[in-house]
């Protein structure tokens, strides 16, 4: 299915950056066995200025209009790179035990199809961009925005607004301007992509919370310092993965009252999908064998009791022994020093057979 996507092209280009950066996954070390720890990116508190900032904008895969916006917003180029890093790491983490593990290296064909996986990529990219811009504002990495200063809390006279809140209001406003989303296309694929992009933005908004700290005599909380703070991006990624698991296949219908085309889910008696549903148009491939959509699951590590059966697609798995070093027999020495020995442990490793 061919599609003209003028209003979502920039997000597809941002995801293309993920393709170029996907080889860096080995450096980040996401094996699926450790808890998610987002590594700090190469970002400083001071936004790049002058020629350095302009050069970064020119090096990014953006439209001509987006490059103009980038040049006017010192710090935006770094923020865009941060959003790519966030979306790439989160995608790989959420799909670490799935047949498709977010590997896009050399397989951009997947982005041309309206699979559930494409829906997740668009949503996680827009969510990461929304999150990164809001955080960049509150940390001072972007010059044209600052902390959120509109708490909107009742009994405001009893509260003292303090610290630097994440500026989600500016983030969403700027994002609409950056994406150039003015009018929804009649093209079905464009509608689906726009819907999934908005799902990512909405789920970030859901994670905005008010955090407060008490001040006063004997902890009386006569005065509270409060600020708005986004939840960790990993929380948004987990919500998006849940939406992916429950994604709705849609088709296009004509609204009898307005004459406009709308998305409808056949499994919901023709009703429109919810605003937080990820939607898709065509069933995904199995991802078991190498194809233009994925490298397959051959040689992938798996857990014998939980993931090998599904991940290996019925081909079975190989078992090997591996020696690993770990700290053991640790003792606390007076007062604050811990001494440990190094133990070597033999463990079984399982990998999917290629044939």
TrEMBL record:
Keyword Signal: yes
UniProt key word Membrane: no
Regions crossing the membrane: none
Subcellular location: Secreted, Extracellular space, Extracellular matrix
SMART domains: WNT1 (SM00097)
GO molecular-function term, one example from the UniProt record: frizzled binding
Signal sequence interval, chain numbering: 1-26
Keywords, alphabetical: Developmental protein, Disulfide bond, Extracellular matrix, Glycoprotein, Lipoprotein, Secreted, Signal, Wnt signaling pathway
Main location class: secreted
InterPro entries: Wnt (IPR005817), Wnt_C (IPR043158), Wnt_CS (IPR018161)
One GO term describing the cellular component: extracellular space
GO BP term (any one): embryonic heart tube formation
Similarity comment: family membership: Belongs to the Wnt family.
Function statement: Ligand for members of the frizzled family of seven transmembrane receptors.
Name of the protein this chain belongs to: Protein Wnt
Gene name, Swiss-Prot/TrEMBL: WNT9B
């Amino acid at each position: 299915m061919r599609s003209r996507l003028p209003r979502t092209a920039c997000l597809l280009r941002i995801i293309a950056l993920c393709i170029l950066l996907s080889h860096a996954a080995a450096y980040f070390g996401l094996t699926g066995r450790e808890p998610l720890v987002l590594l700090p990116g190469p970002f400083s508190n001071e936004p790049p200025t002058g020629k350095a900032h302009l050069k970064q904008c020119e090096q990014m895969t953006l439209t001509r209009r987006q490059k103009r916006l980038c040049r006017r917003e010192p710090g935006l180029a770094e923020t865009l790179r941060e959003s790519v890093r966030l979306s790439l790491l989160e995608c790989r983490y959420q799909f670490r035990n799935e047949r498709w593990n977010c590997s896009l290296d050399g397989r951009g064909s997947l982005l041309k199809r309206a699979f559930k996986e494409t829906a997740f990529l668009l949503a996680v990219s827009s969510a990461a961009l929304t999150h990164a811009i809001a955080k960049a504002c509150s940390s001072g990495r972007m010059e044209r925005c600052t902390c959120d200063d509109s708490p909107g809390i009742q009994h405001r006279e009893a509260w003292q607004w303090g610290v630097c809140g994440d500026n989600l209001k500016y983030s969403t406003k700027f994002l609409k301007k950056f994406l150039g989303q003015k009018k929804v296309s009649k093209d079905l694929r464009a509608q689906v992509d726009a819907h999934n992009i908005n799902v990512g933005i909405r789920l970030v908004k859901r994670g905005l919370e008010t955090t407060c700290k008490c001040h006063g005599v004997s902890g009386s909380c006569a005065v509270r310092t409060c600020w708005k703070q986004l939840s960790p991006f990993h929380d948004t990624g987990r919500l998006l993965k849940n939406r992916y698991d429950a994604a709705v296949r849609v088709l296009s219908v004509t609204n009898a009252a307005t004459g406009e085309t709308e998305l409808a889910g056949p499994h919901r008696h023709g009703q429109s999908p919810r605003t937080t549903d990820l939607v898709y148009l065509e069933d995904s491939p199995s991802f078991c064998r190498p194809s233009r959509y994925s490298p397959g699951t051959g040689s992938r590590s798996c857990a014998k009791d939980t993931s090998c059966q599904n991940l290996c697609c019925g081909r079975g798995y190989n078992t090997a022994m591996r020696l690993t070093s770990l700290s053991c027999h640790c003792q606390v020495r007076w007062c604050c020093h811990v001494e440990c020995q190094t133990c070597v442990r033999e463990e079984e490793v399982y990998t999917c057979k290629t044939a």
